[in-house]
Every structure is written in C-alpha cells, then in structure tokens.
Design a protein that fits this description.
Largest sheet: 3 strands, mixed
Number of helices: 9
Shape: globular
Order of helices and strands: HHEHEEHHHHHH
Strand order of the largest sheet: 1-3-2
Amino acid sequence: MSGIPVKPTSRQEIWTFVRGIRRALGVENDLYFDIIWFIERILPEVFSGFILEICPQEEMGELHGKTVPSENKICIREDVYIGACHGNGRDRLTLAHEIGHFFMHDEGSIEFCQSDPIGKIPCYRNSEWQANVFGGELLAPSYLIDGMSSNEIHKSCAVSLACADSQLRAVEREKIKNSKSA
C-alpha cells in the first residue's frame, strides 16, 4: 500500500473519532451514511472556504480523488462522484476516504519515521491505511455492523462487499486483540 508517513493513529482511535463525527451529526445509530449530503452540505458549513471540486476524468487520469489540505479542497473524479450519487459502494468509499485525508492529514501530520528494512511504512503511520480505516468506519460503523453478514452490511450501508468484508475482519481482529489484553 502506498502512502506517506503520518502521525501514528490506531484503528481504535480512528473509530472513536469517526463515531464522534456521527454523534455530532445525530446519525450515530444510522447504518446508512449520506456521504453526498456530508460532503456537499456539512463540510462547507463547518469549514469556511471548503472546496469540493468535481474534475473531468481526462484531468484526474487514474486518480479517483485527491485531497489538498493547503487549499482546503477535495477533488473527486467526475465519474466517481456520479457513481457515489447513484449509490455505488466503491465510489461512496472513495469520497469517505478523501474525507478521512481531509480530517486527519495536513502538512503538520506528515512525519519522518522509521520504516522496516524493506522500506514499508507501518500501517498505523500510513496515510492511506488511516484514510481507508476512516472511510470504512464512516460508511459501515464497527459498533453497528457487529453480528451482521457481509451481504447485510452491503445492502444496509450501501458499501461494496469488499468494504463490508474488510470491516467485519477488522471487527473480529479488534475483538481478538481486546480479549487478549483483558
């Protein structure tokens, strides 16, 4: 996984942060999260000068989205944005992922850190891993999906089956980790 080194943040810390956002919005107990409402209405209301830029595919190329913290801007490729508007789970996750970068990563969060001998950034210090955890939790909250099947999560949360599976695996890993530390 590519990414840049950022301040270390655990999965639990990210999950707690996302739950706080959902609580503040009054949607803490809702399975479905309206990502379009959030990016179009809430972010501009909360962050003065926030810019959502929908860019043509020719301009973005292979990039589905990008976040430019110094400009208070999220850019989304047009076809991805349209897909998210139509409920495509992968595209919805792209928006949630970019929002994760927006909230968690700016010039001040980038760090130089020690990587392992082959140059890999530890996941908890990897900007892409952190944004993926944020996006998955925003759209399919661990505390609500525990005990559901991947298919139920896919339908109820409007996420891809891959996202649903990933969230369920993360919930199980955290349960195992917590049972060992108890």
